[in-house]
Structures are given as structure tokens and as C-alpha cells.
Design a protein that fits this description.
This protein is α/β, with parallel strands linked by helices and 321 residues long. The chain has 6 helices and 19 strands. Bound molecules: flavin-adenine dinucleotide.
């Protein structure tokens, strides 16, 4: 199968669905390609309390509403289809995909591509991590910190994200422990200083979380001392894991500019360094990764892409191409 589109969007999370809404509402032939189900990280989010206009909504419900809204304007959404490669050829993009269910390979051509493939928080890979995800285990302090008001929180990690988010979580937790495998952090000195001066924070050095336990919800973690090999249980209600975040850019053959974490660098129009390739949401290099700014980025990206297409068509008609 080979099809051509004006706008091709990779990923059907909040950013992709918003870009799809704006693209199809601008009467552009628009397709969203999603390797799994529609919703992105919303599907892994039990409750959302910080998306304006929704005081409390389940992630799955918000995903359904966003999908319905985007489809209303005619966007095509192809699920269970993974984008394997994107490359620019003769002023268009060639996007190769594989259907996850049938194994069928497809080729799409598109004038513009908006990368909204998000990223994946690195996991500890310990027993209990998946079982208690959303029930005590979290990868996002801004999203879930407020659910742990007055409770004991344990942060895992030693880089900038872990130390910064541990500081932030002391607004909520009665006590915030930071478990790190070594006896010093990799985080910037200023962040470390803030944490060490914070009376609610306490470091647990040279230790690793081996298991997360509880009864319906997390109530303790098993810690191993990396020096003495001693194993003990540490009571806690929240476990926040910040050991890395990998943006999903593996399919981009043209290697657009990215930051040291691999996130795509864009200008204020959400244009990457590759002409016609835009990026929005968690995949983009930026300070905050929330639903609100993912949909904001995507709005800009889709409208800027529409202007790019209009300009390109104008130039082509002027030159008689
Ligand atoms: C556990 C958790 C809880 C959170 N809670 C909140 C909250 O309460 N409030 C809040 O504002 N934010 C929250 N966030 C953050 C929020 O979910 C993200 O900022 C937001 O989902 C980003 O949207 P996105 O569209 O950029 O990426 P995503 O939601 O990650 O969507 C990306 C999509 O791209 C697809 N994809 C990836 N690679 C490919 C490929 N090669 N081909 C096709 N498709 C591909 C993925 O399957 C996915 O569906 C939370 C995040 C997590 C992990």
C-alpha cells in the first residue's frame, strides 16, 4: 500500500490527537499513525487533576474524548502500526511502517510530518513496579505529587530530575527519602545543595530498590545496601522513579538536531532542523512534560505545518511545477 497525505502525525497521544484535530479541521489530508492504542501516556494515568477544565478525569476517559474530538473533523487514525523510518526524498517525506498485527509493511508519502511519539520513562525492572504503577509508583512528580500529601515518599535516582523532583515533592510528603546507588549525586551542585538543606529530605546512599510491596497500594520497598549487602524493608506510600527518560526518535533517518537527552530541538513554530518536520509534546526538548503543554505544542506545530504547506504550494504554482 502506498498513500499520500499533506500531514502525517506519528503517535496518537495528547499531542498527536491535537495536531490531528487542527490538521483535519484545516481541511488538510491528515493521518495519525499509532503503534498501539489511541491515548499515549493517558492510558497509563489513573487520575488527572491538572488539565484545565477537568477537575478530575481518568486518563482513559480523556483519551476517548480527545480521540472523538479529533475524529469529528475527519482525521484518519491507523492504530497498531509502528513507524519504522522517516526520510526526506524529493521534497516529500517517505514514511515506512509495519502493521503490528499482520506484519504488513506500508509506505506513506507526506508533505509534512509532525513527530509526537513521546518517550518512555526508564524503569527499575523490579518486582512490584508494574503491579503498583498508578497505585503508589509514579514517574511524574508534577502529575502525582499532590496525591501523597502528608505521606512518606521515596524517590529513586541521582541525576538532575531525581534531585529536583525530590525537592519539589517535599511540598507534599511528610518526609522524602532519596535512594541512590552511589554515595554522591550526579545532579547539579545547586540542586544538591537545595536538597541537603531541605529539612524534610533524607538521602539513603549506596542503596538500591529491590522490590516494591504493598496490599493494593504501595506500603514499603525492599532496599539492598550496595556495600554491606544488607537487605531491609523501608516503609513508604509513594515511590517516584527518575532514572531516565528516552524520547522515541529512533525512526528519524535524517537525524534532526537534538539535546543531550535525545529530545528534538525546535524553534517557536515547533520546526525541527529538517524542513517540513515538526515536533510536539514529550519528544521535544523542553522544561515541562505535561498534557497542557503537549497540546499547546501540537496546536502550534499543526498550524505552522499548514502555513508551510500553503507556502510550498504557492511557490510551486509560481514556478509552474
Ligand atoms: C504515569 C504518568 C502519569 C502522568 N500523569 C500526568 C498528569 O496527571 N497530568 C499531566 O498533565 N501529565 C501527566 N503525565 C505526562 C503526560 O502524560 C505527557 O506529558 C503527555 O502524554 C505527552 O503527550 P505526547 O502526545 O507528547 O506523548 P505520549 O502521550 O507519550 O504519546 C506518544 C504516542 O506515540 C506512540 N508512538 C511512539 N513511537 C511510535 C512509533 N514509532 N510509531 C507509531 N507510534 C508511536 C506511542 O505509542 C504513544 O501512543 C503523566 C505521565 C506518566 C508517564
Amino acid at each position: 500500500m502506498e498513500e499520500s497525505y499533506e500531514m502525517l502525525i506519528i503517535g496518537a497521544g495528547p499531542a498527536g490527537l491535537t495536531a490531528g484535530l487542527y490538521g483535519s479541521r484545516s481541511n488538510l489530508k491528515t493521518v495519525i499513525i499509532e503503534k498501539g492504542l489511541v491515548g499515549g501516556e493517558l492510558l497509563n494515568t489513573e487520575a488527572i487533576e491538572d488539565y484545565t477544565g477537568f477537575e478530575h478525569i481518568k486518563g482513559v476517559e480523556l483519551a476517548e474524548l480527545m480521540e472523538r474530538h479529533a475524529r469529528k473533523f475527519g482525521v484518519e487514525i491507523n492504530t497498531y502500526e509502528e513507524v519504522k523510518s522517516v526520510r526526506r526524498a524529493d521534497g516529500m517525506f517517505e514514511v515506512k511502517t509495519v502493521n503490528e498485527l499482520s506484519g504488513e509493511e506500508n509506505l506513506y508519502r507526506a508533505i509534512t510530518v509532525i513527530a509526537t511519539a513521546g518517550g518512555t520513562p526508564s524503569k527499575l525492572g523490579v518486582v512490584g513496579e508494574d503491579e503498583f504503577a498508578g497505585r503508589g509508583v509514579s514517574y511524574c512528580a508534577v502529575c502525582d505529587g499532590a496525591f501523597f500529601n502528608g505521606q512518606v515518599i521515596t524517590v529513586v535516582g541521582g541525576g538532575d530530575a531525581a534531585v529536583e523532583e525530590a525537592n519539589y515533592l517535599t511540598r507534599f510528603g511528610s518526609r522524602v527519602y532519596v535512594v541512590h546507588r552511589r554515595d554522591e549525586f550526579r545532579a547539579q551542585k545547586i540542586l544538591q545543595d537545595q536538597l541537603s538543606q531541605n529539612p524534610k529530605a533524607e538521602m539513603i546512599w549506596n542503596s538500591a530498590v529491590e522490590e516494591i510491596k504493598g496490599n493494593g497500594e504501595v506500603d514499603r520497598v525492599v532496599l539492598r545496601d550496595m556495600k554491606t549487602d544488607e537487605v531491609r524493608e523501608h516503609p513508604t506510600q509513594g515511590v517516584f522513579i527518575f532514572i531516565g527518560f528516552k524520547p522515541n526518535t529512533y525512526f528519524l533517518d535524517d537525524h534532526p538536531a537534538h539535546d543531550e537527552g535525545g529530545h528534538l530541538i525546535t524553534n517557536e513554530r515547533m520546526e525541527t532542523s529538517v524542513p517540513g518536520l515538526f515536533a510536539a509534546g514529550d519528544i521535544r526538548s523542553q522544561m515541562v512534560r505535561q498534557i497542557t503543554n503537549a497540546v499547546g505544542d501540537a496546536t502550534v506545530a499543526a498550524l505552522a505545518a499548514e502555513k508551510y504547506i500553503t507556502h510550498l504550494k504557492h511557490v510551486q504554482s509560481e514556478s509552474g511545477a
